[in-house]
């Protein structure tokens, strides 16, 4: 039995009165979830829509509480860190993590960044030791699989694409993935939304198909044997 953590970050809903406003990233992510749950209905499923219900931004009080030894924290400090503790516990429990994100201004939504800021926390998801020289930070979690679903209005953000240098979404997610304990990462991307032409339709259809393929592969682990520390574009 596995635990699947699903984090959506679009401010849009999956369905709207105007279908043109439906969240592409969420719909692709739910294609993955629907396929997974058909194959593994008994797995635990944790859902967070941080786009609609964003976590609090971290504050000076939050930082102060983090760097106060746990046994010396006041009740107020413990309350300040309660959400962070809960979000981290969900990540720790998860075997599979699915994150969907639209590209906002060439990066991730502020709501998703707020979620990461609550999770990437010293002595919880990483430790710090100057004895390691110029690499004092070390992630504490491992063994997880991360699926990243992205959507963008333009195109060519992949490696070697015409807008590779403007992609501050996927590289940021990949950098932070080690603090989620992700050893294996799959990427799914839908592009061309602002063009609204056949290229967009094909890109979305392809992304949904790949979401189904990856969900099918991962939900039958006897078939899925993936090397550690790889990024896959299936």
TrEMBL record:
Q: How is the cofactor bound?
A: Binds 1 FMN per subunit.
| This enzyme's EC code(s) | 1.6.5.-, 1.7.1.17
Name any cofactors this protein relies on: FMN
UniProt keyword annotations, A-Z: Flavoprotein, FMN, NAD, Oxidoreductase
Q: Does the keyword Oxidoreductase apply?
A: yes
Pfam families assigned to the protein according to its UniProt record, in alphabetical order: Flavodoxin_2
**What chemistry does it catalyse, as a reaction equation?**
2 a quinone + NADH + H(+) = 2 a 1,4-benzosemiquinone + NAD(+); N,N-dimethyl-1,4-phenylenediamine + anthranilate + 2 NAD(+) = 2-(4-dimethylaminophenyl)diazenylbenzoate + 2 NADH + 2 H(+)
**Chain positions recorded as FMN binding sites:** 10, 23-25
**Domain Flavodoxin-like fold, chain residue ranges per copy:** 17-211
Is NAD included in the keywords of this UniProt record? yes
Q: Which PANTHER family match?
A: FMN-DEPENDENT NADH-AZOREDUCTASE 1, FMN-DEPENDENT NADH:QUINONE OXIDOREDUCTASE
Enumerate the HAMAP family for this protein. Azoreductase_type1
Provide the assembly information. Homodimer.
Q: Which family does it belong to?
A: Belongs to the azoreductase type 1 family.
Q: What does this protein do?
A: Quinone reductase that provides resistance to thiol-specific stress caused by electrophilic quinones. Also exhibits azoreductase activity. Catalyzes the reductive cleavage of the azo bond in aromatic azo compounds to the corresponding amines.
**What is this protein's name?**
FMN dependent NADH:quinone oxidoreductase
